[in-house]
Task: structure prediction
Amino acid sequence: MGLDTRFDGAFLGPMAENADLLEELVVDAIRDHAYWRRNFHPEDSPSIPEASRYAPERQAIVARTRHVLRRLAADLKHSVPWFSPRYIGHMSTDLLLPGVVARILTTLYNPNNVSEDASGPMVRVELRVGEQLAAMVGYETREGASPRAWGHLTSGGTVANIEALWNHRTARLYPLALAAAVRDLGLATSPEPVLGCPMERAASWALANLTIDDALAVRRRVYTEVHARHGPEVLGALHECAEANSVAALGLVEFLSRHELGTPGIVVPHSAHYSWSRAVKLLGLGRSALYGVDLDAHMRMDARSLCEVLDALERERVPVLSVVGVLGTTEFGTLDPIDAIVGQRDARQGRQGFGVHVDAAWGGYLASMFRTPEGGLVPRDEMRERFEYFPSESVYAAFAALGRTDSMTIDPHKLGFIPYPAGAFVARNREIAALLVESAPYVFEDPSAPAEAQIDFRQLGRFILEGSKPGASAASVFATHEVLPLHSDGFGALIASTIDASETLFDRLGALADRLSDAATLVVPFEPDSNIVCVAVNPAGNAQLDTMNAFMRRLFDTMRFRAAAIPQVHEFVGSVTSVSGDRVEVEARRELAARLGLELGSFDASGARLVVLRHTVMNPWLLRGTPTPIEQYVSFLERTVRRLSGGSPSDA
Ligand SMILES: *Cc1c(COP(=O)(O)O)cnc(C)c1O
Result:
């Protein structure tokens, strides 16, 4: 297995094997751009006269430029060697050439995707990228469909997560604002099906517990009814009044006190990225609004604990804005049971409503393996033939459920092999965007018109967190998706090769554990769900967590990236993380202690952490050559463990 030969033309390569191709494409981009400038108004006379080429002043600035750039190039030699198969640390590797060249090409034009006026064609390209990502995860993107998805690029997953929470907060609290507006204007509405009573009579708790789809549907029904009964002017007044009553206008404190509600909560697994804590702080909810769910033995959100947390919040009358599942945790690459989360949302509809967001900053592109070129889901049996272990039943179920979630974060600059910055936010129901803008350009003449008529995404900056933003990111992602479409036979084939390499590493580590048994206990603490593989090593005879952690730190020291060092000192570069005992279900942490030969209660103390090596297995070339980089790494690990645990290196 491993990467097929077509991908040999897709990267610059660890030894810059495709340097000639990159040079040709970049030179072509520069020449083509120069012709574009010259042909804008060929009749104009040049602003920089040819004769000034020889002027000493021009020479001076050119010399200075060359000098500074050489210095910069020298400094850059201390960069992280992402490209190398010796790098298996953080979430980056070599870049796909189409994305690199598209970015360089587009930077010359400098489109600003805040709006079509500032960008030209790249805003549409960005919206197209949003649709490509939406289709990959199973959202509906066809014109006229309802709900219809949309998506756009961000500077990264952090901003996409904050934006998700902003979207969910806006949509989930909207029914309260609309009901207040209906009451303020003294309107009488028909009984609303999902509330079971007219809007103006609904209780705060009921209004605060609609799903996102229901909230948007209620809005459309009430608008349609008010328009039919009272005409466009009253509808316009209702719209303005709902806006004046919105959380955006009043602020969270005033809004909640008017509706006699406590601060709403966000439910996340304990493995969630720190951007969630940042998001609740920024949106004024506070860190105490974050409710953590325990992890199971696979380091996935424990479905039973999720139920308990949701039940407790319902009892305590805490509205839940959103439940967040992580598809590819940053630390362990594990995949939460998205199917169980959407199952809970559906089961609780009518009494406890919440939005479902999937933080797939890391794992989003894994979905390309599950999508057929025709747009369907690849059957699990077919995938099982391709891999040794992947995808487990629960992993498959998580991916199959993505289409039923409300929104997703996906980072092209991680598993999309695209240069920074490129994250993405994708929402299943684009109508949510209409709630984000002040004085939405609403078509009051026809409130039942499709959302597209109400939302002009070409004014992209109105609907998102960021302002000026690089059209070059959109070009980069788009070109990559066009060369490698987001299905099993395109991009999926590249992602599949990272799973191959992970499975190979997992097997080799198993064999290494046997070989090392005299010197140390080596354990893969949880079976990898995808392409991040963690390893824990306890020197023989030790049962103390602290001693083992100290050993792990020394082990990691041999593969730590040192920016100040000569690059060649790095034999392999890895990364390190830790498992918090008190975040993991008690049986799971006891079992892990037993496997490592540690005292049974060693993770029970509050704050106890187990240090593990973390390998991000995404370099395309890990299974090429004899020996392969995976084999080289495993023998490096064997040598190092023997040396550090006191065994003779010649044993290796
Ligand atoms: C990387 C990551 C983020 C943050 O994304 P950035 O692009 O670094 O801002 C958020 N969530 C998860 C799960 C991640 O892996």
